[in-house]
Amino acid sequence: MKMVSLIALLVFATGAQAAPVASKAPAPQPTGDNLPPLPVAAPTPAARPTSAAAPAVDPAAASAVNTIVDNAENAAGIGSDVATVHTYSLRELGAQSALTMRGAAPLQGLQFGIPADQLVTSARLVVSGAMSPNLQPDSSAVTITLNEQYIGTLRPNPSHPAFGPLSFDINPIFFVSGNRLNFNFAAGSKGCADPSNGLQWASVSEHSELQITTIPLPPHRELSRLPQPFFDKNVRQKTVIPFVLAQTFDPEVLKASGILASWFGQQTDFRGVNFPVFSTIPQTGNAVVVGVADELPSALGRPAINGPTLMEVANPSDPNGTILLVTGRDRDEVIAASKGIGFGSSALPVAARMDVAPIDVASRVPNDAPSFIPTNRPVRFGELVPVSALQGEGYTPGVLSVPFRTSPDLYTWRDRPYKLNVRFRAPDGPIIDLERSHLDVGINNTYLQSYSLHEKSSMVDQLFQRISGGNQTSSVQQHTLTIPPWMVFGQDQLQFYFDAAPLTRPELDSHVG
């Protein structure tokens, strides 16, 4: 059962203008000779989790995984001592609160990524939570899967609703670059119960943890892969990209660095990014080095430079680390090289080096930052999120969110509100009770309006409904609502919540009550 928001427009008043912003002094940059250690959460030596039943691992699959790991270690010249253990709570993976499943909304899941330069060698899921004491142990369960591969099962205990921590080992071969961890609830209750009631539920705590052990893969240095390896879009966590500048950097080098940092910042989007600045190359990991060729750190040698140049080389102290060189024979060429990434990233080659040709950049206009939505035309939701983000499965598919950004200094004439045009539809057929089902609309966790899924049909539509045999069909509804300007403050999120009620079954009503 699927509900789809087909088309939606976010209309900002064309008369919106930008107020002048007072200039601010730049924040002081961090300095130092060594990179601060990146945060790596290791398993906490707290209460030892109870081992739960997990699927047996196929010996052939285990052998294949070991072969892959051995080959990767041999190719990179590394051993098991460089394995890194990452521990993420479900909250860190995106769960704002406990993952609660009910009869009408039995599926909850989280998406997370594995960096392209890492290989998973082992993993474990440690879960805790609670299940309704009204559930029957022999017919109720929560099935855990990773990318549709079975991980384990949670069973209710009516005398002890809370469970955990329970530990499930995960076969590392199940992991890919983009992963989905699902919890699927199958409810069996004492007697016959309506799936929409509050007696059938299971909850997995947002403090449950996923522990992943990885080793680095041999680096694959190609400019066309940028922003990798500095940033991977599959990873939700905040990014740290060190910049290395000469001790005597000047405004031109800072301008080139700003172009690069702006481009990386746009790529990271909502995840956030830090740019610590140093004068020497870090001992481990990746970094961006910006400067004139003759002033580059001596550890990089003196590569032949004939003009604006982009180059990826190995970190002199870490063969698995990558250094992005943005350089030239003078400061103007350094700026030109930075524009090769900031304004010409689509033309980066499948090679580790590129001589950058001059790039003409169009004149700026007010509020043209690429992450700001335009104010001179309607903006379709499909421009802000993929179509899949506007679709929901099940009776209560959860909140469908549409994040967007506006210039923080917008104002409207006489505080006129912004207009939001929403089109949506419910599924066809006798699946839900349209009279009791509705769509709630909000912005930034503030309620705006509710709309019934039952469309007010005309006499002609009602006649056609009778002629067609009374089959319940649903067409696209369209509504316009207004958003007060004070509810929009730069980084925003529209929220849509479908609350669909299942049709009441007469045979069920005779037993429930």
UniProtKB/TrEMBL annotation:
InterPro entries: Cell_synth_B, Cell_synthase_bac. Pathway: Glycan metabolism; bacterial cellulose biosynthesis. GO terms for biological process: cellulose biosynthetic process; UDP-alpha-D-glucose metabolic process. Its main location: membrane. Residues 43-54 have a biased composition (Low complexity). One of its GO terms (cellular component) is plasma membrane. Residues 1-18 form the signal peptide. It holds the Pfam family BcsB. Residues 22-54 are annotated as: Disordered. Binds the cellulose synthase activator, bis-(3'-5') cyclic diguanylic acid (c-di-GMP). Belongs to the AcsB/BcsB family. This is Cyclic di-GMP-binding protein. It comes from Komagataeibacter medellinensis (strain NBRC 3288 / BCRC 11682 / LMG 1693 / Kondo 51).
